[in-house]
Design goal:
The protein is an alpha+beta fold and about 90 residues long. Helices cover about 15% and strands about 35% of the residues.
Length: about 90
């Protein structure tokens, strides 16, 4: 297991998790308040900030537990760049 660099800052990242099937908005609370959006193509997107990798894996496990097929996991944005000293 590697150690993060000393200048590594702990910041939450925004993700979109796309699954096969339709989940309605009432699932948002079960998925830690992520926005739940059903699309016309029969997929659902769960999107929002996730505090760390452990939380991301927990959400993916919940999807697995209810039998929802995973299509993709996309990091929408990254942490803000560190200020430069130049």
């Amino acid at each position: 297991m590697s150690t993060p660099p000393a200048n590594h800052r702990h910041e939450q990242l925004t993700y979109e998790i796309r699954v096969q099937g339709r989940l309605d908005q009432r699932w948002a609370a079960w998925f830690d308040g992520l926005t739940v959006t059903a699309h016309g193509d029969g997929t659902t997107a769960l999107a929002g900030p996730i505090v760390d990798q452990a939380a991301l894996h927990g959400l993916l496990q919940r999807l697995h537990d209810i039998g929802v097929p995973l299509i993709s996991v996309t990091q929408i944005d990254g942490p803000a760049p560190a200020p430069s000293n130049s």
